Amino acid sequence: xxxxxxxxxxxxxxxxxxxxxxxxxxxxxxxxxxxxxxxxxxxxxxxxxxxxxxxxxxxxxxxxxxxxxxxxxxxxxxxxxxxxxxxxxxxxxxxxxxxxxxxxxxxxxxxxxxxxxxxxxxxxxxxxxxxxxxxxxxxxxxxxxxxxxxxxxxxxxxxxxxxxxxxxxxxxxxxxxxxxxxxxxxxxxxxxxxxxxxxxxxxxxxxxxxxxxxxxxxxxxxxxxxxxxxxxxxxxxxxxxxxxxxxxxxxxxxxxxxxxxxxxxxxxxxxxxxxxxxxxxxxxxxxxxxxxxxxxxxxxxxxxxxxxxxxxxxxxxxxxxxxxxxxxxxxxxxxxxxxxxxxxxxxxxxxxxxxxxxxxxxxxxxxxxxxxxxxxxxxxxxxxxxxxxxxxxxxxxxxxxxxxxxxxxxxxxxxxxxxxxxxxxxxxxxxxxxxxxxxxxxxxxxxxxxxxxxxxxxxxxxxxxxxxxxxxxxxxxxxxxxxxxxxxxxxxxxxxxxxxx
Length: 501
Ligand code: UDP
Prior knowledge:
This protein is an alpha/beta fold. The protein folds into two domains: about 20-170 and about 235-300 and about 470-500, Glycogen Phosphorylase B (Rossmann fold); about 310-470, Rossmann fold. It is built from 20 helices and 16 strands. The chain has helices at about 5-20, 25-30, 45-60, 70-80, 85-90, 105-110, 115-135, 150-160, 170-175, 180-185, 235-245, 260-270, 280-290, 310-315, 335-350, 395, 410-420, 435-445, 455-475, 480-500; strands at about 40, 65-70, 95-100, 140-145, 160-165, 190-195, 200, 250-255, 275, 325-330, 355, 380, 385-390, 400-405, 425, 445-450. The strands form three sheets. A seven-stranded parallel beta sheet has the order 3-2-1-4-5-8-9, sandwiched between helices. Helix 1 (about 5-20) packs across helix 2 (about 25-30), helix 3 runs parallel beside helix 13 and helix 7 (about 115-135) runs parallel beside helix 8. The two termini are about 15 Å apart. Bound molecules: uridine-5'-diphosphate.
C-alpha cells in the first residue's frame, strides 16, 4: 500500500521542485491545487493505445480527471485517423499531453517495434519525470503500461501511487512471471541454434514450472522471448525483468474477465492480491454508454492509428451469413514474401470467401527492409475476396457474414473475437501470442492451432464463451463490479495523496 515512506518522498519532490528553474511559480501551484489527477501512459503501439484509451474513457465517464500521455507521433496519427479529440472533448477533466519519442525517422523504419519501444523508454525517462514534477494540476496517481518501466521508476522516485496495466492475457502474464523458475529448473534454454532453425529440442516437451499449466504448456507454447539458446539473451532478460518488476506497482489491472482465466488469476493473486480484471474493455465501454444512453455513434468510435477502410463493410453486407473468413495479423506482425504467398495459395485453394487485412509494411526481407506487396495481393474487391490495408476490426468481427478468423492472437483482437463468438485459426507470431493460441485451442476450445485438427465442438464453445464475456461486462457482472472497485480505490488513494500534498 501507499505508505508513509512514499508520502515523505512526495514532500521531497515538492522541495526538489522549489529548487527548479521556475521554482517560485511551481511552489505556488503546489499549494493551489488539491484536486486529484491521474496520468495514463501507454506504450506507443496500436493495441496498447487502443485499450488504454478505453480505460481512460471509462474513468472519465466516472468523473475522474486525467492526463493521457502519448508520444507526439502517436498523437499525430490518432488525431489524423481517429475521432479522439472530439470524443474526449466531452470530458472536461480529460487532457491529452505529449512527449517527443526522441527517435530519428530512419531509426524507426530500420528497427522492429520492440527495439523502438525500448529505446523510447530509456530516452523518455528524464522527460517523463520532469513532466510529472511540472504538470498542473499535479499528478497524484499513475496508470502505466506494464511493459514500460519508466512510469514505474518515475512514480517510485516521486512517491506517486501507481497501478500497472497489462494489455496481455492473464495466462501469458503468468507464464512471463514464472520464467525465472523455468530457467532455474533447467527447462530453458532451448537446445540448438534457434535463429538458423537448427533446433535439437523436442518442442513438444511439457514445461512443469508454470503452476496451473503443467498438463498442456509445451516448450513451443512459451512466450517467444524463450526461443533462445542462451538464458543471458538480452531480450529474454528484459522480459523477465518486466515480469519481476510488477510487484513494485501497488496493483495490477488486466484487460480480461474472470471466467476463462480464473485458475491462473488465483495463482497471480497469491503474489499480487490487488489484481483488477476489467475486460473486455471495449464491451464494458459500450455497456456504460448504453446505460447512460449515449448516442450510438459515440461508442462505435475508433482509436485507430491507420486509415480505416470501411468499404469492406459494404462488401460484407452482400455476403451470405457466416461465409467469410476474416484474416488479420494485427498491427506489428511481419512476414516474408514466401510466407505471405503460402497463406495466399492455401486460402485461395480453399475456395472460401475471405476478407484480408494486409498492411503495406507487413512484408519484410531477411534484413528487415519492407518489401512491396505482390501485385495479386493489392487491396480492393474481387468476386470472393476483399483485401484492405486496415479494417474497422470490431465491426468486422461482429458482422453476420464473418464465420471465422485467421489471426496472430494478439490479446486485443483475441478478446474482440471471443465476445463476437467467432472461432479462431491461430498463427501466433511473437511475444504473448504463443501462450494465447495454446489457450484458445487447448484450454478454451475456441479455435485451432494451425497444426491441429478441426473439430465441430469449437463452434459450441465460442457461443458459450461469448455469453460469459457479455455477462461479465453487464451491470453486476464481474468486470463491471471490478471497474467500480478500481475507481473507488483510485479515488481513495489519489485524494489521500492530494490531501497530504
Ligand atoms: N485493428 C484494427 N484494424 C485492423 C487490424 C487491427 O483496428 O485492420 C486493431 C484491433 O482491433 C486491435 C489492435 O488493432 O485492437 C491490435 O491489437 P492486438 O493486441 O490484437 O495485436 P498487436 O497489433 O498488438 O499485435
